[in-house]
Amino acid sequence: GSSISSLKLSIEFLIRKVSSGEIKQNLEKIADTSQTLYQKLREVIWAVNSRYDTLENLILYLHRYASEYLENTKIEYRSDIPTNIPQHVILGKQRSNILFSFKEAINNIVQHAEASHISIDFIVHPHTFHIQIRDNGKGIPQAFLEKSPGSGLENMQQRFREIGGICKIEPNEEGTTISFYTKIK
Fold this sequence. Notes:
The chain is α+β, with helices and mostly antiparallel strands. The chain is built from 6 helices and 5 strands. The chain has a 5-stranded mixed sheet with strand order 1-2-3-5-4. A hairpin with a 2-residue loop joins strand 4 (about 165-170) and strand 5.
């Protein structure tokens, strides 16, 4: 992580030295790529670090991710986080599958839904954890879901099957609802 940060700072220094043109554009692309790489590395480290094996940490991380990701879009965002989150353990594989499915869902909405609003509810029951993501976009045609749901949607469903959970994708008249359900201990 520190090497990537150092690389990014060096590139930003070079960008300031170059006035314009193709070299500056290429350096800016490299800076963006290094930032993306750094962010992905942080996510992987978070996903495998046992210090973060709590439901509360997972919910707060997902909320922060959505807030930061949607900050530079025109999409309005609302999130409902329980006030008292039980200290349930969510181990690395379960956490990472939830994280990557959540990211896929948010990315799909931004890229494809043409939504202006996203609502995310984190719901904790005694033995299950439920994330409900609703958007007001153009929706996903039911025929598409039944015929060939695309690799991103299939990946989300596969990730939840791997952890004994369920991923539901439901188009409705106001957009799409994506629900993730998983057992918690």
